[in-house]
Write a structure and sequence with these properties.
The protein has 22 helices and two strands. By secondary structure, it is an all-alpha fold. It is a multi-pass membrane protein.
């Protein structure tokens, strides 16, 4: 079951392998455990920012879980041309949070869901449909940099969770010793089990670490079980709960953000297939982008926020060596069940943020590392490519760490260029396209063609 192709990592289970059912369920739960809090946090943050009541907030949380599950299953197994047949867990992204709050306050939630309905399929569907034509513009240097920046700019999110998250900040306990201690415990157990054990304990190292951290939190009295008693057993989806409005400003903003989502998905898909030492195929790219756009538009009918690939779970694939899409399919089923049962979902959301913080820090670091490997395996780091890496990461991390630097721009431009993935991807895309080199779509055909055997044909070195 191991895989030792050039540039790949050692895989315990390859993409079409089916681990035994008990192990598959536990591995699926591990994926759910890592992404469920960040995914549902999007709904909580937007609902709080817009001022929705408890009933509407709970409903949106459940719909995010339901459509995350459905999109994950489609990604693993496909429905017609939709889906990539890759082990990619889907969930609601923080990319859309700021815009959803602003538009929700200014125009109402009907405008938010109307914009998602229009732009989800239109933007990502078009990109997926024409991806074969634009693929030369996204060589390993560009996609690798997107993977790296996704991992790097999520590190502060992991640290925020490790310090206790928003609840701890409101209580004046942000960064308290017991939060940092829980995160450190989870991180230490996950790394220790992965590096110094074998078999099932290594494969389930993250889930085991979260389980131990949760148990310690319960004993220490840091877990509030009251949401479990208050939650209903079943939630029935209610289409057009908030209605639809089609505001031009909202549609333009969400179109930009779906472009970001497409770039993230391209990067995440590249991060997953990097475990096999390769880039995704045209069919995989197209199906994955179709899945993002179509399921996001469909989810908006039931008041779910946009669904996209989850970078933390790309890290799990690389960290554990379990690339089985059937394991991820089980994760999708679990998420869908949680989406129909608020009672079960409430149990999961009682896990303290600090416990997830230790796991998220590890996962986003692995995402960045997988992007580095993708670049190193397929790109010669000569002077040209080093400059592209330096500029792209410099600008991406610059707007991530100092977003106020763009405050003088018009609002739409600030929203667009304030996204670290956009800044990194656009910088890498433009430089790689217009600077001569092997991976440039404008110059690679010339550089790769046989040169005449004359001294005059020899061009200057890139070194």
């Amino acid at each position: 079951m191991s895989n030792e192709t050039d540039g790949s990592i050692q895989l315990e289970y390859e993409i079409d392998d089916r681990p035994p059912w008990p192990k598959s369920i536990l591995l699926g739960l591990q994926h759910v455990a890592v992404m469920i809090v960040p995914a549902t946090a999007v709904a909580f943050v937007v609902a709080g920012g817009v001022g929705l009541d408890a009933a509407d907030t709970a409903y949106i949380v459940q719909m995010v879980l339901l459509f995350s599950g459905l999109a994950t299953v489609v990604q693993a197994y496909t429905v017609g041309p939709v889906g990539a047949r890759l082990p990619i867990v889907m969930g609601s992204s923080f990319t859309f949070v700021g815009a959803a709050i602003t538009i929700g306050v200014d125009y109402g939630m009907a405008a938010v869901f109307g914009a998602i309905l229009v732009t989800g399929f239109t933007v990502e569907g078009l990109i997926g449909w024409q991806f074969k034509r634009i693929k030369p513009f996204f060589p390993p240097l560009v996609t690798g940099l997107v993977v790296v920046i996704i991992g790097l700019y999520l590190i502060p999110v992991g640290m925020d969770y490790a310090a206790g998250g928003a609840a701890a900040e409101e209580a004046g306990e942000f960064g308290a010793l017991h939060h940092i201690g829980l995160a450190a415990l989870v991180l230490a157990i996950a790394v220790g089990l992965n590096m110094f054990t074998a078999g099932v304990t290594r494969l389930l190292s993250i889930l085991a670490a979260i389980g131990v951290g949760y148990a310690v939190a319960v004993v220490a009295g840091l877990v509030d079980f009251s949401p479990v008693g208050d939650a209903a057993w079943v939630a029935v989806p209610s289409p057009t709960r908030f209605g639809f409005e089609f505001e031009p400003v909202a549609i333009v903003v969400f179109a930009f953000l779906f472009l970001v989502s497409a770039m993230e998905t391209v990067g995440d898909m590249s991060g997953v297939t990097a475990a096999e030492g390769r880039n995704p195929t045209d069919k995989e790219f197209r199906g994955g982008l179709f899945n993002d756009g179509i399921l996001s538009s469909l989810g908006s009918i039931f008041s779910a926020f946009p669904i996209t690939s989850f970078s933390q779970n790309v890290g799990i694939v690389n960290f554990t060596g379990v690339m089985s899409r059937h394991v991820v399919g089980i994760s999708g089923v679990i998420l869908a069940v949680l989406g129909l049962s608020p009672k079960v979902g409430a149990v999961v959301t009682t896990i303290p943020s600090a416990v997830f913080g230790g796991a998220v820090l590890l996962m986003v670091g692995m995402v960045a590392a997988s992007g580095v490997r993708l670049i190193v395996l397929h790109t010669e780091l000569d002077r040209r490519n080093m400059v592209i890496v330096a500029v792209s990461l410099g600008l991406g991390l610059g707007v991530a760490t100092t977003p106020e630097a763009l405050s003088g721009l018009p609002n739409a431009a600030e929203t667009f260029f304030g996204e670290p993935v956009i800044m990194t991807a656009l910088s890498a895309l433009l430089l790689n396209t217009f600077v001569p080199g092997e991976q440039s779509p404008l110059f690679d055909a010339v550089s790769s063609s046989p040169a005449p055997e004359t001294d005059a044909a020899a061009g200057p070195s890139d070194d």
